[in-house]
Amino acid sequence: MFARDHKTSSQQSIVKGDMLHPFSSVDQMSAQGSRIMKRAEGVRLWDGLGNEYIDSAASLWCVNVGYGRTEIIDAMARQGYDLPFYHSFNGMGNEPALALTDKILSLAPGNMRKVFFGSSGSDANDTTAKIVWYYNNLRGKPDKKKLISRWRSYHGVAGAAGSLTGLSVVHKLFDLPGERFFHVSAPDLYREPERDAQSYADELDALIRREGPETVAAFWAEPVMGTGGVLTPPDGYFEAIKSVLDEHDILLVFDEVITGYGRLGEWFGAQHFNVAPDLIVTAKGLTSLYAPLSAVLVGDKVWNIIDEQRQEVGVFGHGFTSTAHPISAAAGLANLRIIEEEGLVEQAGAAGRRFFTMLKSAVGDHPLVGDVRAGGFMAGVELVAERSSATPFPVDLGVSGRVREAAMKQGLLVRALTNDVIAFSPPFNTDETDMKLITDRFAATLDVMYDHLKSEGHLKGW
Length: 462
Fold this sequence. Notes:
The protein has 462 residues and is of the alpha/beta class. The protein is built from 16 helices and 17 strands.
């Protein structure tokens, strides 16, 4: 165990610098600088001035075992002393990566056969797109390359991943999406309550038939959509979707970067929804982001074709310098051991149900709240200008971002999403006392924001 110095090197919470920040306003960053977080423990963080915050979002849906888990830090340090890095090209390997492969496959749906490691959800989705194309080339179907995902989905920001993502901010000025990429509607039970599972399947089927089934390769889906607004599918959704895909010989890819490793109360969302995807994309919760690591799980349908064509394949010409990084793999093993030994998957399921009840009780009747929804231990609160008509706020008003900033003044960290949704995804071991603090502080935040918006004349019907 290592001693840690909790003293701040500079007593500041805002620092000017030249770092180009992801998903941040270039204009605001130029004027304001970076907000500095100095340390973290459990479900709390402290900034450079010593201000304390409860992290109700596990950072970016990822610090699932909480902060300061010395078991993970120690495992990374021990691995660093033994073997800090060696590549995995040309058949080279390391013990933690091979052990982690076995552990992942032991927890995954039974049709998964191989694991490919990367560093992020973005590169994992790009890897998966290439594997899909590779698979169809090996099958003698070189025209079967189009990929379908959903509007409001988030699959990352790399070339293929950014094209799969269904958010305009990821496409704007980046020349995305590419010509092989198509999108269908996201399931939104709040905005479109009249739609059922079959209507979404029919929409997908119509797009496939319009483009030609012989040209469509795969359909991408998050089991529960995260960044798009914490959207859960209607009953029977994936069964209906899978039926369409099977009819047209199209692969199902589950993007479980958020939901994988316990977020929905099962190890994988595929198990939660009782569906067998052909490939599974994971990252975030694999290491609780104590170190960067992603893993693409390849199912038997895809692997069997690659295996059968192994002589024609020769060298599998894809990979990254950091693939199967031993320190990241050691972090993954330690993280999964914590989740397993402490029963955190089951705990996440139970905590998610309690948290949803508490959140709905705290803010469900608030005049700014149109909908409170949840999937496992992730929840979303959609903010509206008028409850009775579900009238949204103007996009340029930036209400969700203003709520995020107001929450920080209450000592609470939340995620501000598209469509003015505030998201919650606390660490799995968040106790009921802290859940109550989260919901109380969020309710207080909404009260403050209501007064501001009302004084500015932005509320309807009040």
